[in-house]
Design goal:
- It is a single chain.
- The chain is mainly alpha-helical.
- The protein has a two-stranded antiparallel sheet.
- It has three helices and two strands.
- The chain starts with 13 loop residues before the first helix and ends in an 11-residue tail after the last helix.
Length: 88
């Protein structure tokens, strides 16, 4: 998110720059208005329980986003349970 150039010039590709800008703008929109910022700036849906509101960042390794497919949303609706820690 803007610090890739500190790691050397080979990391500062146009695609990396665009991805960094996209993340900065997405986070900035959310921070300025957590309820409607992403809706107003990017037409992203407001989270609603049991609705398809998940997005996929960088589909096909491109600096963009898309609404997640029904398959991805279904996997998130029924995640694999995390086992409780072993207390022994």
């Amino acid at each position: 998110m803007g610090t890739y150039s500190l790691m050397g010039a080979k990391y500062a590709s146009p695609q990396t720059n665009a991805a960094s800008r996209l993340l900065q703008h997405l986070f900035g929109s959310f921070i300025r208005d957590p309820l409607r910022g992403l809706l107003d700036s990017y037409s992203l849906p407001i989270y609603q329980l049991n609705q398809s509101t998940l997005i996929e960042l960088f589909p096909d390794n491109k600096p963009t986003f898309a609404l997640a497919t029904a398959t991805v949303n279904a996997a998130c609706a029924n995640p694999t349970p995390i086992p409780p820690p072993d207390e022994s």
